[in-house]
Structure formats: structure tokens, C-alpha cells
Amino acid sequence: MLKPRGCAQTQLLSVFLIVAGLLALCARSLAAVPASASTPADSGQELARVVGVNYAEVDGRGTVTVSLGGRGAASWRSFALKDPPRLVVDIVGAVLPSRPEPLAVADGIIDKVRIAQFSSTVVRLVVDLCQESSCTVSQPEEDPRQIVVTFPKRVTGVEFREVDGRAEAVIRGSGRLGYKTSVLIEPPRIVVDLADAVLVGNPPPMPVSHAIARQIRASQHSPDTVRVVVDLVKETTYSVFTSPDRPGEVVVDFGHRILGADFATSLKSTRVSVKSTGLPPVKITRLTDPHRIVMDFDDSVLDSPDSTIEVGDGTVDRIRLAQFGPMTVRVVVDMPYYVGHTELPRGPGPCGTWDETAVEITRSPLYQKTIAVDPGHGGTDPGAIGSTGLQEKAVTLDIAKRLAAMLEEAGAKAVLTRTDDVSVFLPERVRIAADARADAFVSVHANAGRTDEPAGTETLFCSNVPMSSRLAQCVQASLVKETGRLDRGTRERPDLYVIREATMPSCLVEVLFMSNLTEELLLIDPAFREKAARGIANGIWAYFEWRLEASASADGGGARAGPAKAGNAAGPGNDSADGGGASCADTVPGDVIEAQHGPAADTGGEGGTEGDTGGGNGQGT
Known about the structure:
It is a single chain. Helices cover 19% and strands 38% of the residues. By secondary structure, it is of the alpha+beta class. Helix 2 crosses helix 7 and helix 4 (468-483) packs across helix 7. The longest helix has 29 residues, at 526-554. It is rod-shaped and about 130 Å long.
């Protein structure tokens, strides 16, 4: 059944009117509600206000801080965007009273910082980045009115350089960079990992032209770790350090290079030089048992093909080089004896391509010489007896023992004709010296006169063996110089058995007069006996030094430079005739031989006296 048309239209009109009425009612209701009703403030919660945004570098880390005001509480959420890279931090429950201009930073990670009201209750912070980077966002418990965005420290570059001969790879960055190192081989390389760091830019590998390194590479090994690799020419030691004096740097220190050692031999010394790049700190010490000079070079690495250099020139046995510590090179000069050395001024080497540290080691002309030392008297023969009861045999034995020790220290072999208070016949004394193939014979005595007036020192000789007078002159000059006593000179005495029958250059030393109380008291004093022994030793030194120079002059050589090896420069009894050249008085060195031993026991000597008037001597004829 069809409904009338007008009835349908009436129904549609009624529906329309109902809907319109409902919409009008809703509109009136909404107009009566405040605008913040859709925010947390609808329930009475206030919004926080963003009162400031600033950038600062804290311990090398770029830090963006948002400061909040008001009584409202705010929270945050963050996320990263790409193309271009940027960090977004939404501060929820906050309003921005005014929109500031973008904050330009350009620190290598952060380009600029922007902030705006993203919605009625959300303030959006956008950090535009120069490159992708990790970061942390926090709202510190101790200060919840701040939202802090912290970026890693920055590695801004690497460099290899050599300053004053000291090579180093320098990693530059911001703040105090933490690091961990390791060594890899095949090929050799040093790896430095820097945690909590970002590499600024993407630097290409940097070639290096150096004896130690050939290339430096840097890369972002992980999101928060930078890896720097130093590719080496060969394995080497190194150290890594940071210093308050060099903020923002991690230094891979290769130190100074010790390039090797060399030596040059002359008549009187051997010069040992250590070649280096620059002049590293060095400590030079002398050690004994065995004799050696030690040079410790700090901040140094050994870069020498030689670890041992054989010398064997009679002054130096060998030179040894080693990496003693991570950054300490030790150079050891082994010596058969030691009598002295001089540290020479440091500076450029002769070629100017390296620097050098050198020592000049005194050569002993006594090295491998055999010296017969004859303490006068002994046993049943007390020799001269002073007014205090002092016996000559005790004085001569003590001085002779001290003398023998000094000669041994200087590289000689000393043979004593007696070592205790025993009687030794004169022919036996001569035989002991001959059997030892001695290069010189020195008999030690104390003088005596018929009165207490005679005083002073004299040395006697017999010219049946060439150069005996030269030996006597050298001993006399050195002994007088050392003791400061009256110089009575040298005299020939062919009537004295031991110096007449000796088959090598020989002399008999009358140290002082037992018959003179002043000199007797000196002979009692151990310090004076030490002086007397040193004076005689220096005289023997001067004698053999003269022979060495005479031999070199006869060969037309003189001093020899370069790493030549030298043996004994003069053999016993084969030199030119006595005389010629400078006198021993002109050439005696001052305290060449230093006594290093205490007084020997006062245990006796040999008999007989020698008066200032030529009286009989127990040595016999």
C-alpha cells in the first residue's frame, strides 16, 4: 500500500530538526568549557615553563641543557631522525613562553639547537647534527628542573711528528680522552681505542715517512668508540700518555731513537759514543765486579741492528745495547779495569745527521803488564828501626800491599816477593820477578842515616838494564809530588843486589828516613802510607805511558783514531835506549791511580839500612 508523498517529507523534516537541535545544544555546552580542559590542567595540573636553553662543553662533552620553571612537572621522550641527522626531544607538560632564535654551536657534532611549541602541552627541542652520533638524555634526580642532553667527547684529528728527535703520534680531541691500547702483528701495528668518543669527520689514512711508522688511520669503530691505528715499519716499544700540560691530547710516544754506538781508540783513551735522534735524558753510572759504565737513556727506543759491539782494545772489552725498559735503552761498556772516565759535552755527531752522547775512558798503560813489587827486609831481618820502635819491614810490607792493589785496579798483574813477615833471600826475590816475566821490578824501602837530620825521598837504580833510570825518575817524581816531601833525586847504585841482578827495568825506593822522628811518625800513619803507595803507582804508570808514547813515535803513528783494536803497545826490554823525550817530572799525571783499599796488616819486612852518607845496605853486593 503506498503512503502519501506529503507524509514522507514531513518525517524527513522532523529528523533534520532533531539533529540540528542536538548540534546547537553541544555547541552551547562547549562554549561554556575553558580552553585548557583537554590538558593535564583539566584535572588541576599546571604546565612547566621552559625558561632557558643553553650549550656548554663539560669535560670535553657537548651538553645542551633545558631549564624548566613554574610549579608544573614535565617529562620527556626522545628519538632520532635521519636525512639530515637530528635528535628530537619532546618535553611533555610544558609551554614555551617565547620562541628563541636557533642556537648556533658547530662543535663538530652539533650544528645548531632549535626549540618551539609543538602542541599546546609539548615543547619540542631539535638538535641538528653535523653527523650521526650517540648521546644520552637525562633529568637529574638532584635537579629535576633540568633536562640534559650529553654528547660524547670528540676526536678531531691525528698527527705524526718528530720534535727534537722525539717521534710521537698525537690524537687530538676534546676533554681528557680515555684510551686502551693493544699491539697487533703481521703486520705490526698499535691500536688505540678511545671510549665514549665520536670521530669528527671521516679523515683518510695519513701516510707517514719515518723509520718507525708508515701510516695512521682513524675510524668510528663502534657508536661510542673511536679506533686509531698506527701502522709500523717494524715492531717497536712505545708508551701512551695524557698530560695536563697537553689538554685534549693522547700521545703515542715513540721517544728518541738510539741508533747504535761507536768507539775510537787513541794512545791514552777510548772514546765511546752513542748515536741518537735528539738528546734524550741520560744517567751515567759506574759499576764494579765486573767493571762497567752504564748509560741509561730515558724516553728512548732501541733502533740499532747491533746489540753487541766487540772492541777489545785494552781499554774496552765490548759495548752492549738493549731495551732495558719500555722506554729506557741501556748501553753498557764492559771494561777489563777502570781508572777513570770523562763525560764529554753532548751535541750533534760529526756528520750532523744524529746527536751523540760520549764518554772518554782512560786507557791504562799498565794493562796486562806484570809488576814485581818487593817489600824490603822481613822475617829475622827487621831493617831500620826508628826511635818509636817502628820496624822498616812492617812499613815496606804495608806500602807494598797497597801498591799491589792499586796496580791490579789499573789492569796490571802485581807479584809480591813476600806477602807476610818472612825472610826472603835476595836471589829468591830476583828469581820470583824473573819467573813471573815481570815488565818492571820495584823494591820498597825506608831509609836511615847516622844522625836524625837526614830527610826526604830518593830512588836508586842500576843502569845495567836499559830504562831503569827512566823508571827511577818517574817513580821519584810522582812520589815526591804525592807526599810533598824533600826531593833527594835519583842515584845509581850498582852495589845493590836486587836492582843489579834484575833482568827487567828496576828501581829501589827509599820512601822516607826512619832515623828522622818527623818522617818516622809519617811512616806510622796509614794515610801517609796510602799516599806513598799511590805516588809509586803513579810513577810506574808514567813510566809505561812514556814507553807507549815512545813506541808509537818510533812507529810513526801517535794516537790512532777509529775502531782499531790495540794490544800491548810495548814489550819489556825492547824499547829504544834510555833517554830522549820529555822527562817523567814533566809528564807525571796527578792521582792517575786512586787507592781503593784500606791499609794492609803491619806484619814485617827486610833488613839493612841505607844512610845518607852511602853506608852499607842489607841488600848486599
